[in-house]
Amino acid sequence: AGPGQTAMYAGLQELGVANGEDLKETLTNCTEPLKAIEQFQTENGVLLPSLQSALPFLDLHGTPRLEFHQSVFDELREKLLERVSAIALEGKVEERYKKLEDLLEKSFSLVKMPSIQPVVMCVMKHLPKVPEKKLKLVMADKDLYKACAVEVKRQIWQDNQALFGDEVSPLLKQYILEKENILFSNDISVLHNFFSPSPKTRRQGEVVQKLTQMIGKNVKLYDMVLQFLRTLFLRTRNVHYCTLRAELLMSLHDLEISEICTVDPCHKFTWCLDACIREKFVDNKRARELQGFLDGVKKGQEQVLGDLSMILCDPFAINTLALSTIRHLQDLVGQDTLPRESPDLLLLLRMLSLGQGAWDMIDSQVFKEPKMEVELITKFLPMLMSFVVDDHTFNVDQKLPSEEKGPIPYPSTIPEAFTKFLQENRIACEIGLYYILHITKQRNKNAFLRLLPALVETFSDLAFSDIFLHLLTGNLTLLGDEFALEEFCTSLFDGFFLTACSRKENVHRHVLRLLLHLHHKVAPTKLESLQKALEPTKQSGEAVKELYNQLTEKLELRKPSPAEVTETPSMELPLPTVPTPASR
């Protein structure tokens, strides 16, 4: 018997059941092999008196004994598996588990025998607490660990954080990669962007579903995953971990896993915010609810602010809060009301501030809400409102009959204070960037060109972050026709994008994405100089080189061949001589 054979009989000897080794020994030490085989068959066959007369009948039909025993074995195994699942549901709790534990005790020695393994695994799967000794044996054997059900693995993981970490880690890497692939996708559209999928759709993603299944109802494992996410967020500052934190909680909420939802202090807040994200707007009723949760944080429980800030730091939450803020500012212009007089607006700022302060709070472990800068409310937001007013005034002026003085030009300068706010205040910068996205989406070229210079230097380079550039490139497709104008291209590319391309690889990628989409709209001379400026260097990564090659190929296809160029005039000559209905 080779190693494979040995595995087939693993554990039979401990149970006093003869195996292949015993038969081999019997045959080696006997004088009459045939008699010995017959005796072995009698002793180890199916002990049913009625069967003895039936077996020769099978022999007449040429059915090998192995086939017969195998089919009986398969049938019995199926019945046993059904019985185990039934035991797990019937009678008193202590009794049913006692039966299963006894069964496990008897069968565990056969766990490495491939034909019996499913039964042993099934018994363990239905036991809420597999004996520690058995778990250790399973954990020590790679193949057994791989073969056991997730219910058993959970019991192993909850006391082995490192092992659980090894299982979770590749999933978290995959999640971040998926998010980045969407941000850098070659499909640029204003309708389908990073924020388009609804929260419910996002939660159906592979990683969230797998993690949800791995956690089950186990609070300890849930806490471990949250700890991993916090640690990774601190280490990398990557906000996608905050999205996963919220998605995981809401995925457990969808499955109504109250064991976890009731102990996560963020559950109701996240649930309410999730509804706002779905609508991409925070309405008054939900605003009151969210405020209630924030005001309800009791003394001694401030640590929950760390979790709430992580939920609010999720880009989908920030996106919703920022869009709602811009909408509120426009409404206030119409109502002649100042920002400081709007409680709803102040609440949005409070939540934005908490979300943007997540990293600092978790890092410093000082759990208190960040102080709101008064000037943000008294100076910056009124300044944004004045930009809205400028647009209204300009539009009205355009419609008035022009007097001798000629048309009033669009204001081209920006207050120095605006640029300073964008550089020094994180919340102002976030709202300012969303205002710029808003005017771009409205195809307001004048306002866009006026404010664009303020983006070159922003708070921690937020204007060059992937999420903003992903949204901006999408919105710029609406201004496609402007790319034919040298002045527009110079402001956008030379004045903004190219200032960061050489030091920030991601910006280089986003510009190439945009040009792949809009190259046919760009003025030819400008396109040529851009092609030179965007050429990858030795230090450039694979993604940049790949995009640049794609762009070069597209531009090559657009160039007319020399033959076509010379033939064109001769083809045009005969056209005027073709008789037209009018000249007849």
TrEMBL record:
One record GO biological process: negative regulation of transcription elongation by RNA polymerase II
Source domain of life: Eukaryota
GO cellular component: NELF complex
Name of the molecule in the record: NELFB factor
Cleaved signal peptide residues: none
Region described as Disordered: 558-584
